[in-house]
C-alpha cells in the first residue's frame, strides 16, 4: 500500500464543523475541501467557515486564513482559492500546533505545473520511482491513487498537470481520440475538483496520419482545419482541459521546420485553433541540432534555444507560452541560466525545471534541488524594456517584468507508482518544495525543507536537524563528486547515471568538454561561440572573461589550462581533486546523520533510505575515483595534498 506522504492524517470524523455559503453546496471543489477538513485527524472539534468573498487583492487562487474566538475562517474569491486555502490551513495548523493562524497567500505564478513523462504502456521516460500510476497496458487508469495524487497537488497549490510524455508515442496519440476521450474527461473533472487543470502532450504530426490531410505544414489550410475540428471535438467532451504541451523539432520529434516554417508559425497554428475554447499551447524551446559532429567547433548547442526563438519575440499568439529549460543545455547539475529570460518582452514564458533526478542521482542519491532552483530564480537578468519592477528570473516568469498573460513554473515530475511515490523517500522534498516554490518563489529553501520534514517526519529535534542538514548538503555534495565547474555530461550515455568522463564527448549530442592534456572547456565568449554575448549587460561582460566568471561556471564558459587559478585560490585541477574527495566524504557524513535516526522515525522509511545511502556512499566513491583518475591520467599533475591517484 502506498504512503499518503504529508497527507497521512485521515480519520473518520474529527468532530469539526465546516460552514460555507449556501450557494456552494453543490460545488465538488468545496465538497472536497470540506471532506479534507472534516477528516483530518489533527483538526479536532474546530469551527471553520469557508467564505466566498469579493476581494480583488486575492486574485483567482489566493486565500486569507484568519482566527477569531468563533474559530477559523478561510476566505477566497473562488472555489479554487477555498480549496487551496483549506489544504494550506491544515498544514499551517499542524506546523503551528493549533496556534492562531492569520495569513494571506496569493500565488506568484499563474501556471504552477508538473509535467509527466509517462508513457501509455506504463513506463516513464526518466522515471525513477516505478511505473506510471496514470497508464498501464495502454490504458488510462483512474482510481483512489489518482485522487490522492490530486490531493497532493492541491495541498501544494499546483494548478496544472500534464499527464503524458512530451515524446508522444503509440497509444498516447489516441488520448484525443474517441478511444480515451471519456476517461480524459473523467480525469479532468477529478483534477478540477481539486483546483488542478489537466493538460495533455500532443503529437504535432498527428494530421499526417489522416490520408485526407497527409501533412503537418502549419500554413496548410487542410492542416489548420484538421486541428480546429480536433479541438472542437476534444473540448466538446473535455471542456475543462487546460490545453496542450508540445515538443516539436526536437530530438527526432516532428515540427514546423520540416515544412520550412518557423517555431512561431507552428505554435500559432495550434493556438488559433484552440483559442475559442480558452485553451493554451505550451511550446517547448528545447530545439537543437542533435546530429552534431564533435569536430565542428562553431555549432554550440547552448545557443540553440536563443537562436531559434529570440528573433521571434512578439510573433507568438497571446495564448502561446514558451516553456524554457532553466539552463541552455539539459538539466545538468550546474548550468548558467538560459539567456532567453529577460530578453523576450513580448512573448509569454514559463520556466521548466526537472525534479525527476535524471542527471542528479536518479532518486538513488539524495539531492534536494530547491537551493539550486532558488539560485536560478534569483538570477538577475537585467531585462530589457521591462514594464514592471523586478527583472530576476522569478520576476520574468511570474509575469511581473513584462506583464505576460500566461507564465509560470513547471517541473518534470519525480513521481511513479512506488509505494513512497518518489523512489527515494527524501526525494519527496523536491515534489513538496517545487510546489511551494512555484506558489511563492520568495520562500527560502531551508524554510521549505523544514516544513516538509515536520509534516512528514514530525517535530523531534534530532530528526528535524539531521534531515535538514542532509537535504542542505545534498546538492552541493552531488556537484562536488560529479562533473566539475559547470562542465556537465560526464555520465554514462543514454542512462545518464554513473561517471563516464568521455561518455558524451564524441557523440552527436553537442555536449563536449574538450579535455586535452593541457586544457579543458569550450570557449563560449565573443571570441568563441559567442554564447556569453547573448546575455544582457552586465552579465555578458561577466561571462566574457574567466576572471569575472563565477568559479562554478568557469568551464562552461571558458577553455582553461589545468593550472588556471580560480577565485577560490585553487587551480582548476586542484579544485577537481579536492571537491571529489570532499564530495565522497559528504556522502558518508549524510549517511551517518541518517543512521542516527534509527528508532526515531518510521522503521520502513528508515530502512529504505538507509539502503539508498549504502549505495550513494559507494557510488560517490566511484564517481570520485573515475573523475580524479581521468584528470590525473590526462594531466599527470599530482594532488597537492599527496592523496593517492591512480
Ligand atoms: C522527454 C532529455 C532527456 C529526454 C527528454 C528530453 C526532453 O534529452 O534525456 O529523455 O525527452 O530531455 O526534455 O524533451
Summarize this entry quickly.
This protein has 646 residues and is an alpha/beta fold. The chain is built from 16 helices and 17 strands.
Task: Outline the structure in words.
This protein has 646 residues and is an alpha/beta fold. It folds into three domains: 5-105, Chitobiase/beta-hexosaminidase domain 2-like (Chitobiase, domain 2, 2-Layer Sandwich); 111-457, TIM Barrel, CATH 3.20.20.80; 458-522 and 559-646, Alpha-d-glucuronidase, C-terminal Domain (Alpha-Beta Complex). It is 34% helix and 11% strand. The protein contains 16 helices and 17 strands. The strands form four sheets. An eight-stranded parallel barrel has the order 6-9-10-11-12-13-14-15. A five-stranded mixed beta sheet has the order 1-2-4-3-5. Strands 7-8 form a two-stranded antiparallel ribbon. α5 packs across α6 (263-275). The protein is globular, with a radius of gyration of 25 Å. The mean pLDDT is 97. Bound molecules: 4-O-methyl-alpha-D-glucopyranuronic acid (GCV). 4-O-methyl-alpha-D-glucopyranuronic acid binds at residues 117, 125-126, 166-167, 247, 251, 286, 330. Residues 117, 125-126, 166-167, 247, 251, 286, 330 line the site of 4-O-methyl-alpha-D-glucopyranuronic acid.
Throw out a few tags for this protein:
single chain, 646 residues, alpha/beta, Chitobiase, domain 2, TIM Barrel, Alpha-d-glucuronidase, C-terminal Domain, eight-stranded parallel beta barrel, 16 helices, globular, binds 4-O-methyl-alpha-D-glucopyranuronic acid
Amino acid at each position: 500500500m502506498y504512503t499518503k506522504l504529508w497527507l497521512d492524517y485521515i480519520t473518520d470524523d474529527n468532530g469539526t464543523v465546516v460552514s460555507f455559503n449556501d450557494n456552494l453546496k453543490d460545488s465538488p471543489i468545496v465538497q472536497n475541501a470540506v471532506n479534507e477538513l472534516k477528516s483530518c485527524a489533527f483538526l479536532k472539534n474546530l469551527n471553520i467557515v469557508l467564505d466566498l468573498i469579493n476581494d480583488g487583492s486575492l486574485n483567482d487562487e489566493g486565500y486569507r486564513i484568519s482566527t477569531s474566538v468563533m474559530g477559523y475562517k478561510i476566505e477566497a474569491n473562488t472555489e479554487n482559492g477555498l480549496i487551496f486555502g483549506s489544504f494550506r490551513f491544515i498544514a499551517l495548523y499542524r506546523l503551528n500546533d493549533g496556534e492562531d493562524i492569520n495569513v494571506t497567500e496569493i500565488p506568484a505564478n499563474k501556471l504552477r505545473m508538473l509535467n509527466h513523462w509517462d508513457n501509455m504502456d506504463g513506463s516513464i521516460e526518466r522515471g525513477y520511482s516505478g511505473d506510471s500510476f496514470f497508464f498501464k497496458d495502454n490504458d488510462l487508469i483512474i482510481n483512489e491513487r489518482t485522487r490522492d495524487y490530486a490531493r497532493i497537488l492541491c495541498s501544494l497549490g499546483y494548478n496544472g498537470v500534464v499527464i503524458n510524455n512530451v515524446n508522444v508515442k503509440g497509444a498516447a496519440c489516441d488520448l484525443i481520440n474517441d478511444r480515451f476521450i471519456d476517461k480524459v474527461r473523467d480525469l479532468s473533472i477529478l483534477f478540477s475538483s481539486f483546483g488542478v487543470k489537466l493538460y495533455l502532450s500532443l503529437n504535432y504530426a498527428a494530421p499526417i496520419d489522416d490520408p485526407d490531410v497527409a501533412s503537418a505544414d502549419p500554413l496548410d489550410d487542410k492542416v489548420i482545419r484538421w486541428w480546429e475540428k480536433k479541438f472542437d471535438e476534444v473540448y466538446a467532451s473535455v471542456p475543462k482541459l487546460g490545453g496542450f504541451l508540445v515538443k516539436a523539432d526536437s530530438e527526432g520529434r516532428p515540427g514546423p521546420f520540416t515544412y520550412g516554417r518557423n517555431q512561431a508559425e507552428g505554435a500559432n497554428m495550434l493556438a488559433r485553433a484552440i483559442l475559442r475554447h480558452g485553451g493554451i499551447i505550451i511550446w517547448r524551446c528545447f530545439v537543437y541540432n542533435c546530429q552534431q559532429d564533435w569536430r565542428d567547433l562553431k555549432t554550440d548547442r547552448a545557443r540553440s534555444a536563443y537562436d531559434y526563438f529570440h528573433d521571434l519575440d512578439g510573433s507568438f499568439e497571446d495564448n502561446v507560452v514558451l516553456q524554457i529549460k532553466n539552463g541552455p543545455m539539459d538539466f545538468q547539475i550546474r548550468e548558467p541560466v538560459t539567456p532567453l529570460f529577460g530578453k523576450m518582452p513580448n512573448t509569454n514564458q514559463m520556466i521548466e525545471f526537472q525534479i525527476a533526478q535524471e542527471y542528479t542521482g536518479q532518486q538513488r542519491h539524495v539531492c534536494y534541488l530547491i537551493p539550486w532552483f532558488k539560485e536560478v530564480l534569483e538570477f538577475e537578468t537585467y531585462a530589457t524594456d521591462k514594464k514592471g519592477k523586478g527583472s530576476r528570473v522569478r520576476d520574468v516568469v511570474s509575469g511581473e517584468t513584462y506583464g505576460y498573460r500566461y507564465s509560470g513554473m513547471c517541473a518534470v515530475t519525480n513521481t511513479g507508482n512506488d509505494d513512497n511515490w518518489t523512489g527515494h523517500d527524501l526525494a519527496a522534498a523536491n515534489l513538496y518544495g517545487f510546489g511551494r516554490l512555484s506558489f511563492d518563489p520568495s520562500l527560502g529553501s531551508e524554510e521549505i525543507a523544514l516544513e516538509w520534514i515536520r509534516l512528514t517526519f514530525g517535530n523531534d529535534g534530532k530528526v528535524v536537524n539531521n534531515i535538514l542538514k542532509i537535504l542542505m548538503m545534498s546538492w552541493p555534495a552531488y556537484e562536488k563528486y560529479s562533473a566539475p565547474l559547470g562542465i556537465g555530461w560526464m555520465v554514462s550515455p543514454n542512462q545518464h547515471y554513473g561517471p563516464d568522463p568521455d561518455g558524451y564527448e564524441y557523440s552527436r549530442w553537442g555536449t563536449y568538454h574538450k579535455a586535452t592534456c593541457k586544457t579543458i572547456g569550450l570557449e563560449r565568449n565573443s571570441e568563441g561561440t559567442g554564447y556569453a554575448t547573448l546575455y544582457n549587460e552586465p552579465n555578458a561582460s561577466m561571462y566574457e572573461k574567466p576572471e569575472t566568471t563565477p568559479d562554478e561556471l568557469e568551464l562552461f564558459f571558458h577553455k582553461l589550462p589545468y593550472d588556471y587559478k580560480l577565485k577560490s585560490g585553487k587551480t582548476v585541477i586542484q579544485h577537481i581533486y579536492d571537491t571529489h574527495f570532499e564530495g565522497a566524504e559528504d556522502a558518508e557524513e549524510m549517511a551517518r546523520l541518517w543512521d542516527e535516526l534509527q528508532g526515531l522515525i518510521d522503521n520502513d522509511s528508515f530502512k529504505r533510505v538507509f539502503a539508498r545511502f549504502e549505495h550513494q556512499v559507494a557510488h560517490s566513491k566511484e564517481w570520485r575515483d573515475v573523475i580524479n583518475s581521468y584528470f590525473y591520467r590526462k594531466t599527470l599533475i599530482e594532488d597537492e595534498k599527496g592523496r593517492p591517484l591512480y
